[in-house]
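ugh finaly. both done.
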Amino acid sequence: MGVEDAADLAGTPDGFGRLWVPHRMAYIGGENKDGCPFCRAPGLSDADGLIVARGTTAFVLLNLYPYNGGHVLVCPYRHVADYTELTTDEVAEIAELTRTAMTVLREVSGPAGFNLGMNQGAIAGAGIAAHLHQHVVPRWAGDANFLPIVGQTRALPELLADTRDRLAAAWPGREDD
């Protein structure tokens, strides 16, 4: 097999480098979308569900496809799509868990700021529109680099399980797994 044959197998060289992220195929192919992952997670161990903390009406878990290291989601246990459908207790606990997540993330990883938000409906960008979830995304100076724009991927400094363990260990009043 000559060089030309190898180029045909690997694609035509175009001057661009490639950053391969084969783990993303699970997301693209729809794995982990059977049923609601936010309804499924509380039935797993905290480590397996990437759950950082559990409240009475809501819980905190790591985003499986994070924008940045430490990106957590605050979800009600109840399968509800719209913020206006939450009970007063759910609104209060989601707010309190969001505040605590910010405090813990500051302690553990020292971000310079946060993006907080809910995408309500698929048209608004919700990947899982049927189950409301609040994003808490820690931000650092210079964390937005060329990778998301050019490579359509993000570089994360540690495994999700390790991030979950560090956040869970720092969560106030949390008992060990």
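ok and the 2nd:
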Amino acid sequence: RTDAGEYRLTNRGGSGVIAMKMTAKTGKHVVGCLMVDENMDMMALTKAGKMIRVDMQTISKSSRNTSGVYIVKGDDVANVSRCPKQPIEEEYDEEGEGTLLGSDELE
């Protein structure tokens, strides 16, 4: 997470702004860039089909020319998206066993 004020404006024909150090350790590509605040979560979809939800407060703030923070290890990220925080609610049946709200039971 980097404050947007750290990125200078450029004009047409400018040399650009370095957003992230690209090394063999970090990978060759930037998958996405999101404008977020601390009241949001980020979801990352991997090429293997895994979906990972990350609270933005757990990612520390840093300067703009850094190598970033690991979210997923051992798989390539295909896409990232932001989403609002939603508390996990549980509903209870007559026996007092909890199930996630909105989950369907398999028969």
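summary for the 2nd one i guess: The chain has one domain: 1-87.
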